[in-house]
Amino acid sequence: LSATESGRRSGMTHNPESPENPGRFNPNGTPKSCYSQQFFNSNPGDVELIDGVRVCDRCQCPRDGSLSYKDGGDFVKGNDIIDATGNANVTGARNFPPDLFQYMFGIPKIDAGGNERWPEVRDRAVLLSDGACTSDPLSPGCCADLNAASSGLFWSEEQTCDLAQSDIGSPTAPVYLVAEKGFTARMDRFFGVLYKFSRPGDLNAYTLRVNGGGSLYGALVADDNSVVDKATGNFAIVYDAKVMQNLSESPGFLGGGPLPGSWNDLGAF
Question: Quick check: 141 and 132 in contact, CB under 8 A?
């Protein structure tokens, strides 16, 4: 699992569902994070430019010089990791936002009056459900329908959101996918935001399984107590401001609130 940011460094985010069930960034496998230049320099011959976005299928963070990494059984958090348990390397305005849903969508999950507001975002999205597959990426009914032609805001209520197509979204027309339960990322490339969301009161720890060799260009956000599980090989999360900006301007996402990641990543580094 490589987490990098184009231009600076990455931010992987994680938040608890409730104080009784404290969340944390809990990766399995052997995750590493690094500066983007280290990532792309690891295999410069495989780097290509697609619509102004650098893409590399065989790059990875080197062990020496990594910002965050697994050391034996312990995960060492550098100052590029911001999660709900806190990080001694991250202070002040760069701490974790109190309401991650509001930070990403501009609407609180639950407002000051106790009203659940998250359905307002779901109701603007294309709903993906179990047993509703259409095999049409332009009119998808489930996660498995999404491919490079898909773009905009999608909300999956499936037991497992299966991202099975080779490419999902594109640099110029990214995807914003909200998954309520588990997901399996089997794609080669995902352009946009993959947001793991749990409804208030759902304290299940879902598994977010990513297969080796794939890459996510944008951001992976976990707003609950889920575990990111790497099956095999290297999975790269590459923050790219151009992808995030294109997503915020996408006709399929307009009206979904401001997208902070289009201009920063939980604070300036």
Answer: yes
Alpha helices in 52-196 (DSSP H): 100-105, 119-122
Encoded tokens for 18: 């409730």
Question: Where exactly are the structural domains of the chain?
Answer: 2-262
Asked if pLDDT for residue 123 goes beyond 70, the answer is yes
pLDDT tens for residues 175-197?
A: 999 999 989 999 999 999 999 99
Whole-model pTM: value is 0.81
pLDDT above 60: residue 201: yes
| Alpha carbons within 13 A on the beta-carbon side of 229 | 12
Distance CA 211, CA 160 (A): 14
Distance in Å from the first CA to the final CA of the chain: 21
* Residues 25 and 77: beta-carbon distance below 8 Å: yes
The CB density around residue 131, as the number of other CB atoms within 10 Å, is 7
